[in-house]
Structure formats: C-alpha cells, structure tokens
Amino acid sequence: MTNSFPPAVSDRICRHMNQDHSDAVARYAQTFGQIPDATAATMLSIDADGMNLQVQVGEVSQPLRIPFDHTLVDAKDAHQTLVAMLQQMER
C-alpha cells in the first residue's frame, strides 16, 4: 500500500466519522492534536500516515494534521487504529 488511500476509501471513512462519530473527531483534535479548547472538528481526509481535520475553536476554524503511530496498511487497519485511539483517551 502507498502512503495514501484511494479517494473513495478516504471519503467513506470521513463521511462515516463525521456523520456517526463527530464527538470522537472532536476528541481526536482535543487530545492528539493538543487543542483542548476545540469545540468541534470535521475529518477532511485520511491516509496511511495520518488524518486531516478542520477544527473549530470558538469562532476560529483551523486545519490540523494528526499523524498515526504507524503506517496504516488498509481500511481495516484505519478502523482499528481510530478505535484504539479512542480507547487510549478513555484510560
């Protein structure tokens, strides 16, 4: 696998995360993006090395790149990694 997912895979993951897990996306920004004041975030894209978010802090919107701790191999690995990141935040 190269360092990016096909656009359709990235789009599917982002659509799912934004529609069904928007609270988790905001928590990624707060914790892994080190923006504790983030009030909302949208996942713009995901690739093998990280995710790109648009983060809302008050009235300001800013881009944020969150790298993964390893290079993802496929969409299943992306799912497992995103879940593991959430579990890490709950500890």
TrEMBL record:
It comes from the Bacteria. Residues 10-85 form the DUF2470 domain. It holds the Pfam family DUF2470. Gene3D superfamilies: PNP-oxidase-like. InterPro entries: DUF2470, Haem_oxidase_HugZ-like_sf. This is Heme iron utilization protein.
